[in-house]
């Protein structure tokens, strides 16, 4: 919505079984569409089980014993600015199960995860790379203004430009492993 674009992400709901959980299947998430085409695009999707949630961002995925969950930021607040970039703090999150029926053991893991406070000292920005120093960001902005194409830090393979401060790097892995899916990624840092 920030760039006046939207993307659709199709995730088949896994069926609970005695077997180990199936791998996460993602489809249709690589394309971006103009925001004014959203309603038309939704009508064209067959067999859509829609989960309507208002969310500020997608932290990533997590799996316990029964299947995957989508971790969403439900509420945030503005805590500062760096130049014209807003810095936001997480106020509340939610786990959306991507499978049917959870075991008692699974519910215990979910309770433990929910006790972990993602609302204390976790920050993000839609337009600024918080996991890097201001000097790195300014140098990259200058290079970009001279036509050098730069990749976000969390995509870098060079160990000197690592993503050690991106708290949710592991949770974003399903998007990072696919070509052209990185627009779903919202790097989160812990502390400031």
Features of this protein?
192 residues, alpha+beta, five-stranded antiparallel sheet, two-stranded antiparallel sheet, 4 helices, 18% helix
List the helices and strands and how they pair.
Layout: E1 5-6, E2 33-34, H1 38-44, E3 57-63, E4 68-82, E5 85-97, H2 104-115, E6 122-124, H3 134-145, H4 173-176, E7 189-190
Antiparallel strand pairs: 1-2, 3-4, 4-5, 5-6, 6-7
Would you give an account of this structure?
There is one protein chain. This protein has 192 residues and is an alpha+beta fold. Helices cover 18% and strands 23% of the residues. It has helices spanning 38-44, 104-115, 134-145, 173-176; strands spanning 5-6, 33-34, 57-63, 68-82, 85-97, 122-124, 189-190. A 5-stranded antiparallel beta sheet has the order 3-4-5-6-7. A two-stranded antiparallel sheet has the order 1-2.
Percent of residues in helices: 10-25%
Could you spell the SSE succession in H and E letters? EEHEEEHEHHE
Q: Going across the biggest sheet, name each strand in turn.
A: 3-4-5-6-7
Outline the biggest β-sheet: 5 strands, antiparallel
Distance between the termini: 26 Å
Average pLDDT confidence is: 79
Strand content: 15-25%
Shape, per Cα inertia axes: globular
Poorly predicted parts: none
| Number of continuous helical runs | 4
Q: Label the structural class.
A: alpha+beta
Could you tell me the number of beta strands?
Answer: 7
Gyration radius from CA atoms, angstroms: 18 Å
